[in-house]
């Protein structure tokens, strides 16, 4: 006889299957029983962050680079993002600081900005810094000094206080033309829990104060700014920024800590105020609230100051709990903001005078979900000149439902007035501030459970929203759309033993987010955000477009050349794209009668246009046109000469012409405003594209043609064939290639030229043409998509060096970081054109791209792109750093569950509305509802059993019932009220005259109500359904005779099952408090009970699960990932074919926040999995079915998870342990690091188990099998392998770990290469970096 029993062992509940004899023996013996050893395969897990949480806790205007850079700092839980605010109200990311340790508790800005920046009309356009002006304005004493090795500190420094009490001082410096953080960390000498919940800096930035929730106050005296400046300019580091630190105990709960403003003439006077609440010894006594003020002069001993009791003043108890305080600019006065009123405290250091008034705002908006009145959450002071604040103080007060007050205070009388500004239409939390603008007050709001953004308030006008910050938290549910197959299965076609058309489109990931009026669906996209600034529809298809400065007019206007299939259109843009007009054929100096093939603007400003019939030269004062009929002599010119291809450079124009059955290439020389023939020769085959390139200092011509297959040829100016290469198939044989479509030069260097080319089959070629006689042309191929791929130059975009743009499958990709040795671009970032005014619109298709350089007059000095989208011309402003580009589909109600229907190809969304719950079918492309609900009378309305307020949909599932080889689709809905509803969907037949947009209708087919408790989850197979009602699982099948569900089996659980899965014919039931159970729900038809096959020994408070099959070679086994409320992800091994055996934990990852939903998706492109030397390691870290495993948290953080074989885990574990013991990686910042003396000596301490490099097999316990990919990512980004391995004295162990990967296949050739010593080590490090790059490659 066996039974299950629970034991409390090692701090947690453990469930075991025991028999009666064992139990009796155990009770009669005093010997301690040991846990049974569960045999399971060894496996590790890696998690890395793909997308950070969009939640922002604080926003601060900062000048971290210079006085000319209008930056803002967005402070998140673990990430600080610095963005530049530009004149158009849009922001661009500058840098991102990620703290991999404890959370960021608070932040302040140290330093003040020069007052004249608000009226500086000479600031550089686009925020370009002028170092000379900066030094002269901010540091007149050191400007022009040559004795300093480093430039001055910027006007302000951002100070973070972490959960550990450690402080981080950071600002941005320029390193080789790129911004980089300069970071100084200071560790506290005393550990104080929750220190920094209140954090303030005095108006002169000479003191800071931090307090915990209660009992402790810390005051920091900073070194004088001149000392810090001199120290940094001499040594490149701030050193210890503190002069002294003093702590003081407090009695009671701290509500707020602020420094008050002294009189303008008393800048040496420091006033610190703390608001406290405390109770006496009598527990029934009501709490007393008061403020305490300490004031002192600069130079006084802080110990003596804080030892005093300070000035204490009681607050009115009837006003309620103080929310926060607002120091005023004059008379050391301050506001105390309560839930329903505001109190002005005058003369706080003597007998305080209170002036209280109620804050009578309007009724709360639809965004508010609380039971009481909305609270005031934040305040901000706008930018004004110093002279203005001497007479008047201005405060903006914000409420959580988006309502704002404007408060104006007279500095002499302290009389104040307030004015309602209305609502901004979003939820306002603590992330609220104002930023500098020359003509308006700018409000920056982070958004709380709703999108944030930027609003402008101009004089005598209303609030205007100019930008949006996407926010997809809190994430309630998620789903995946598979674009390639209607059934959700994508099988790659195989030709000649290789993949010819593998799946290329990535799955689309959707989140359900928000609540009430802010409820929405969010499609998560990752790449470069391109804001559409100007859109012009010419109503005719455009093949390609170019844009150049108009040097004929000195007004910043520009010409846009639009090439149509048979003619050309010229558009004239005014400066800044404010206006556009169509140039007529009579007045235009361009050729508009034929299609433009290519155009450039030379360094002298002359525009060269090569059309099908002529060449046009447009200079500042003159222009000319030269017909090919006059330039090229052929026997028969009756029909004229029409060029097929053209390419222009500063000196030459190259065209190809077909005549008399042959193709000739003609080189034309540009001589001032004239064009003369230079040379011509015959080329065999069909020419598909041409390009000019510099080789050995001379212009050469690269020709893509088809001669019994694709061919690339390079010709010298005299027509001599320099080299040629057939391109019939990829070098590795993975693809059959088609003709080239375009060629683009990405780098010209001594002895070689690097180009990129697109093909008609969606392949991208990276080609190096060199003077190597043995291998003059080396190349590699990779697939971008399935349609034709075209490449366009983008040299210098974002100052990233060698790069290119590519279009394929109606999408645009930026290819950057081309490395000479690796012969391929290091990054591929999708560019997502977005409409700023409507975040729900999908990205428009892109067919051509042209880079508008920062030197183009009239473009605003920014890197812009000119895109062709069908008949439209788009001017977009592209972010320089990749990140999430979410697309939001607003619903206006709360979403509880969602899924994607593979049959109906739409999103099925469960919502909560005012009158009850509902089911919506949403088109994922348009965001519109495509199905109408029908009630019991087949009329449009609520579905039967849905229109009941207070109910909630807990689960939805698509059921494909199969009978007689026919599939009948249904949607199953489970509810909190104990109902299970089966919904049918059908198409609505529409007349031919109606819109082609599809329409559906859905109605209740069958329902069960009155079940035992809420129906938490449901799953189905081909025959029936399984659902959990209360704590009982029910298995029911459809009885066609009675046309209803017939009960078959049940099973009682210890806690409700919130998630059900059927894997390999077995039922996985995830419970709220008792982990997962694996049951057999089919066998033994005569029994009404389901058989328990496996159960977890540990009781876990689980959230979600997913089952994956890890594979290594031909052997595979199942692992179930369990996420729990504590932030853990545990992998349990499911024994194959072994019943009545407990699940064994293989690994456990402890994350910062729990995973709300696991996502299994095809989100990695074939290119990423195949390129490089280590494709097998990538596949070994994936799953058997090729699906990637992602996990999303409630706060919106998206992580990827990878299962690791033991050989790969050993290598990654070694790097991780070395990194954690290294001082540089401990900072987890991006840039230089300097620690103060209090933070440690800086020595590297290596664990005993890795010192010496002899131990190769660490203990494979579950807690040791977790690899933090964020730490490895930092090592990869900063290229730290050489440093951490060298300082750890583990070079031998590092090489041995790499030798054992895949039996040494990756390092077996190192010894035979002749390399030794440092060269041999460099090969190992190169391999180590390549492995990290492949394993950490983002998949979303």
- Return Rg in Å: 35 Å
The pLDDT mean sits at 84
β-sheet strand percentage: over 45%
Number of helices: 14
Helix percent band = under 10%
Shape: globular
Low-confidence blocks of residues: 25-37, 116-145, 485-503, 1166-1170, 1228-1256
Largest β sheet strand count, sense and barrel closure: 9 strands, mixed
Distance between the termini: 51 Å
Give the number of DSSP strands: 90
Return the structural class: mainly beta
Description of the molecule:
With 1340 residues, the protein is mostly beta strands. Helices cover 9% and strands 46% of the residues. It is built from 14 helices and 90 strands. The strands form 21 sheets. Strands 36, 57, 58, 59, 60, 61, 62, 63 and 64 form a 9-stranded mixed sheet that branches. A hairpin with a 2-residue loop joins strand 13 (207-211) and strand 14 (214-222). Helix 13 crosses helix 14 (1318-1335). This is RSE1/DDB1/CPSF1 first beta-propeller domain-containing protein. Residues 56-469 form the RSE1/DDB1/CPSF1 first beta-propeller domain. It comes from Hapsidospora chrysogenum (strain ATCC 11550 / CBS 779.69 / DSM 880 / IAM 14645 / JCM 23072 / IMI 49137). InterPro entries: Beta-prop_RSE1/DDB1/CPSF1_1st, RSE1/DDB1/CFT1, WD40/YVTN_repeat-like_dom_sf, WD40_repeat_dom_sf.
Task: Set out the fold topology.
Blueprint: E1 2-9, E2 12-19, H1 20-28, E3 44-51, E4 58-62, E5 71-75, E6 79-85, E7 91-98, E8 104-110, H2 131-138, E9 157-162, E10 167-175, E11 178-186, E12 198-201, E13 207-211, E14 214-222, H3 225-235, E15 242-260, E16 269-278, E17 288-297, H4 302-307, E18 311-314, E19 324-327, E20 334-337, E21 341-346, E22 353-358, E23 376-380, H5 386-389, E24 392-399, E25 403-410, E26 416-423, E27 432-435, E28 441-445, E29 452-457, E30 464-469, E31 475-481, E32 493-495, E33 498-501, E34 508-513, E35 520-524, E36 526-537, E37 544-549, E38 558-563, E39 568-573, E40 580-582, E41 596-601, E42 607-611, E43 614-618, E44 623-627, H6 628-631, E45 643-648, E46 652-659, E47 662-671, E48 674-683, E49 686-695, E50 698-706, E51 710-715, E52 721-726, E53 740-749, E54 752-759, E55 763-770, E56 777-783, E57 790-793, E58 803-808, E59 811-819, E60 824-834, E61 848-852, E62 864-869, E63 872-878, E64 883-884, E65 887-890, E66 894-901, E67 906-913, E68 916-922, E69 931-934, E70 953-963, E71 966-975, E72 980-987, E73 1000-1008, E74 1015-1020, ...
Helix pairs in contact: 13-14
Pfam families: Beta-prop_RSE1_1st
InterPro entries: Beta-prop_RSE1/DDB1/CPSF1_1st, RSE1/DDB1/CFT1, WD40/YVTN_repeat-like_dom_sf, WD40_repeat_dom_sf
Domain RSE1/DDB1/CPSF1 first beta-propeller: 56-469
């Amino acid at each position: 006889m066996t039974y299950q029993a629970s034991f409390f062992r090692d701090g947690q509940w453990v469930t075991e299957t025991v028999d009666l004899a064992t139990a009796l023996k155990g009770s009669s013996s005093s010997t301690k029983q040991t846990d049974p050893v569960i045999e399971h395969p060894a496996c590790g897990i890696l998690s890395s962050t793909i997308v950070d949480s969009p939640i922002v806790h604080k926003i601060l205007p900062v000048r971290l680079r210079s006085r000319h850079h209008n930056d803002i700092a967005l402070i998140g839980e673990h990430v600080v993002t610095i963005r530049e605010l530009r004149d158009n109200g849009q922001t661009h990311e500058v840098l991102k600081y990620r703290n991999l340790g404890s959370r960021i508790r608070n932040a302040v800005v140290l330093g003040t900005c020069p007052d004249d920046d608000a009226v500086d009309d000479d600031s550089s356009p686009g925020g370009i810094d002028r170092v000379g002006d900066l030094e002269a304005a901010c540091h007149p004493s050191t400007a022009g000094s040559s004795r300093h090795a480093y430039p001055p500190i910027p006007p302000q420094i951002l100070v973070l206080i972490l959960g550990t009490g450690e402080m981080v001082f950071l600002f941005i410096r320029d390193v080789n033309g790129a911004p980089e953080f300069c970071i100084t960390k200071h560790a506290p000498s005393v550990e104080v829990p929750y220190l920094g919940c209140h954090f303030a800096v005095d108006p002169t930035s000479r003191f800071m104060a931090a307090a915990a929730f209660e009992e402790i106050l810390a005051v920091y005296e900073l070194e004088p700014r001149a000392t810090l400046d001199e120290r940094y300019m001499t040594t490149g580091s701030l050193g210890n920024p503190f002069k002294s630190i003093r702590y003081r105990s407090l009695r009671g709960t701290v509500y707020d800590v602020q420094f008050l403003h002294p009189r303008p003439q008393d800048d040496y006077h420091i006033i610190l105020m703390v608001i406290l609440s405390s109770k006496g010894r009598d527990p029934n006594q009501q709490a007393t609230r008061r403020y305490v003020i300490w004031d002192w002069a600069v130079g006084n001993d802080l110990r003596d100051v804080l030892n005093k009791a300070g000035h204490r003043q009681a607050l009115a108890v009837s006003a309620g709990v103080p929310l926060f305080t607002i120091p005023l600019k004059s008379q050391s006065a301050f506001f105390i903001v309560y839930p329903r009123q505001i109190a002005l405290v005058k003369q706080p250091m003597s007998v305080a005078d209170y002036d209280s008034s109620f804050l009578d705002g309007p009724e709360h908006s639809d965004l508010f979900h609380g039971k009481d009145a909305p609270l005031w959450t934040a305040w901000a002071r706008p930018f004004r000149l110093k002279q203005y604040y001497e007479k008047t103080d201005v405060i903006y007060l914000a409420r959580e439902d988006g309502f704002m007050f404007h408060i104006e205070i007279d500095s002499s009388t302290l009389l104040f007035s307030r004015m309602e500004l209305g609502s901004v239409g979003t939820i306002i939390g603590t992330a609220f501030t104002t930023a500098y603008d020359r003509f308006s007050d700018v409000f920056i709001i982070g958004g709380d459970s709703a999108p944030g953004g930027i609003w402008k308030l101009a004089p005598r006008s209303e609030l205007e929203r100019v930008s949006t910050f996407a926010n997809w938290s809190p994430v309630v549910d998620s789903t995946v759309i598979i674009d390639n197959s209607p059934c959700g299965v994508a099988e790659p076609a195989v030709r000649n033993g290789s993949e010819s058309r593998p799946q290329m489109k990535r799955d689309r990931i959707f989140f359900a987010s928000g609540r009430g009026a802010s409820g929405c669906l969010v499609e998560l996209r990752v790449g470069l955000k391109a804001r559409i600034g100007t859109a012009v529809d010419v109503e005719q298809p455009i093949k390609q477009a170019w844009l150049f400065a108009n040097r004929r007019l000195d007004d910043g206007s520009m010409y846009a050349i639009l090439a149509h299939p048979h003619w050309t259109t010229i558009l004239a843009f005014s400066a800044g794209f404010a206006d556009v007009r169509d140039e007529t054929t009579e007045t235009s100096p361009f050729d508009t009668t034929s299609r433009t093939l290519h155009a450039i603007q030379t360094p002298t400003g002359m525009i060269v246009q090569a059309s099908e019939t002529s060449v046009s030269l447009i200079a500042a004062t003159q222009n000319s046109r030269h017909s090919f009929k006059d330039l090229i002599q052929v026997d028969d010119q009756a029909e004229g000469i029409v060029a097929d291809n053209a390419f222009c450079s500063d000196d030459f124009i190259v065209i190809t012409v077909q005549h008399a059955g042959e193709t000739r290439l003609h080189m034309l020389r540009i001589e001032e405003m004239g064009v003369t023939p230079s040379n011509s020769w015959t080329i065999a085959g069909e020419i598909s594209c041409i390009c000019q390139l510099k080789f050995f200092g001379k212009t050469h011509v690269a020709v893509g043609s088809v001669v019994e297959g694709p061919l690339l040829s390079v010709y010298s100016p005299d027509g001599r064939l320099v080299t040629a290469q057939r391109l019939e198939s990829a070098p590795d044989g993975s693809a059959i290639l088609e003709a080239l479509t375009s060629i683009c030069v990405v780098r010209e260097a001594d002895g070689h030229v690097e180009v990129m080319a697109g093909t008609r089959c969606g392949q991208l070629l990276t080609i190096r043409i060199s003077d190597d006689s043995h291998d003059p042309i080396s190349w590699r191929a990779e697939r971008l998509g399935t349609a034709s791929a075209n490449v366009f130059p983008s040299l210098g975009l974002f100052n990233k060096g060698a790069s290119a743009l590519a279009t394929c499958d109606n999408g645009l990709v930026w290819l950057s970081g081309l490395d000479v040795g690796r012969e391929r671009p290091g990054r591929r970032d999708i560019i997502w054109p977005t409409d700023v005014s409507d975040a729900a619109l999908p990205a428009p298709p892109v067919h051509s791209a042209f880079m508008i350089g920062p030197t183009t007059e009239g473009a605003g000095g920014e890197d812009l792109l000119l895109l062709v989208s069908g008949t439209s011309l788009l001017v977009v402003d592209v972010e320089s750093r990749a990140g999430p580009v979410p697309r939001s589909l607003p619903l206006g109600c709360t979403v509880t569950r969602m899924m994607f229907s593979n049959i109906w190809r739409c999103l099925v969304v469960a919502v909560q509305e005012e009158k009850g719950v509902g089911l919506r079918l949403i088109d994922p492309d348009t965001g519109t509802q495509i199905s109408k609900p029908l009630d019991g009378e087949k009329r449009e309305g609520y579905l039967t059993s849905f229109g009941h307020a207070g109910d909630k949909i807990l689960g939805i599932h698509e059921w494909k019932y199969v009978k007689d080889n026919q599939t009948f689709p249904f949607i199953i809905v489970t509810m909190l009220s104990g109902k299970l509803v089966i919904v049918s969907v059908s198409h609505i037949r529409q007349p031919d005259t109606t819109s082609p947009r599809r329409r559906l209708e859905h109605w209740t087919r069958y329902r069960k109500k009155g079940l035992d408790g809420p129906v938490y989850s449901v799953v189905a197979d081909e025959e029936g359904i399984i659902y959990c009602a209360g704590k009982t699982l029910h298995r029911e099948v459809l009885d066609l005779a009675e046309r209803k569900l017939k009960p078959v089996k049940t099973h009682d659980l210890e806690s409700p099952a919130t998630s059900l899965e059927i894997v390999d014919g077995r039922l996985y039931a995830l419970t709220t408090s008792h982990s997962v159970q694996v049951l057999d729900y089919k066998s033994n038809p005569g029994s009404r009970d389901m058989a328990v096959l496996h159960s977890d020994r540990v009781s876990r408070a689980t959230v979600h699960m997913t089952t994956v099959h890890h594979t290594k070679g031909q052997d595979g086994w199942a692992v179930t990932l369990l996420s729990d409320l504590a932030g853990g992800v545990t992998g349990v091994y499911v024994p194959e074919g072994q019943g009545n055996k407990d699940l064994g934990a293989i690994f456990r990852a402890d994350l910062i926040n729990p995973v709300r939903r696991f996502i299994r998706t095809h989100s990695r492109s074939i290119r990423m999995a195949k390129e490089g030397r280590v494709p097998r390691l990538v596949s070994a870290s994936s799953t058997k079915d090729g699906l990637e495993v992602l996990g999303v948290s409630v706060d919106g953080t998206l992580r990827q998870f990878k299962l690791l074989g033991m050989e790969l885990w050993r290598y990654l574990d070694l790097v991780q342990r070395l990194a954690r013991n290294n001082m540089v990686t401990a900072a987890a910042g991006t840039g230089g690091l300097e620690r103060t003396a209090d933070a440690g000596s800086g020595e590297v301490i290596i664990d005993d188990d890795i010192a010496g490099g002899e131990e190769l097999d660490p203990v494979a316990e579950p807690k040791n099998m977790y690899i933090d990919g964020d730490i490895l990512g930092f090592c990869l980004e900063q290229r730290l392998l050489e440093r951490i391995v060298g300082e750890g004295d583990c070079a031998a162990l590092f090489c041995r770990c790499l030798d054992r990967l895949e039996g040494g296949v990756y390092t077996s050739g190192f010894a035979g290469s002749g390399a030794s010593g440092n060269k041999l080590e460099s090969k190992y490090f190169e391999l180590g970096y390549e492995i990290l790059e492949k394993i950490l490659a983002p998949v979303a």
